[in-house]
Amino acid sequence: MALSRKPHVLVVGGSDSSGGAGIGRDIGTISALGVRTCIAVTAVTVQTHEAVLESHHLPPGLVADQMRAALQANKVAAIKIGMLATEQIIAAVAAVLRENRQIPAVLDPVLASSSGGPLLEADAIGTLTRDLMPLCRLVTPNLVELAVLAGSRPAVDDCEMLRQGQRLLDAGSQALLIKGGHATGPRSTDILVRPRQQPIRFDASRLAGSMRGTGCMLASAIAAHLANGTSLEDTVRKGKLFVFESFQKIEAA
Ligand code: PLP
Fold it and tell me: Domain Pyridoxamine kinase/Phosphomethylpyrimidine kinase: where (predicted)?
């Protein structure tokens, strides 16, 4: 069959048997926004909502082969990257991004599940920041991820957070959406930082309760909107609204 001409998002990440996060969430989010998906699986995880029980990593060459086949089969208009598990998988994904620099990539730098189970090997952080992040249109760390990526402790105020963000921009990142700028209180603020531009703040009511997979959903929604040609700033606004409304629907159900 010929190449599908409808815009697709290529989802690169791990499966989560609990259904809370990972590629299941990504595909659900992107499909809900009316955009098609294709996938490259990096890892199969055995998870409940309380724990990561097992994590099996796919060979890096197989991850790259899946990506190249998905790109050949479809008109991929954006790439969403989640769990990468190892340094070798990061290098394989970076190699495919280098071959496809025209396609915007959104990286959710997943380090661990909210239950605390590790999803990326600790020695892979340098490769992530040096080799992969500069190839991505947007990276979406939360405060803990930002600190680890910047080689610091979690920021205690906005100034420190912006300094950590600047360190990653200096290391080559194109744009960061730092999630949860104000870590407590009724409002949650995400901040978009880019080189030589004023930070842009996105303020919303803090979600009551907790839902897993919100990081996956936000990055996926942003990738879906990027695939439709929306500007980066507007994709963030629309992505945040989508996560907020989805959460409200789930709470109300
Ligand atoms: N499991 C997988 C495979 C993921 O990709 C992610 C996040 O992207 C998580 C777990 C973590 O999700 P949560 O923070 O909701 O536990």
Answer: 16-248
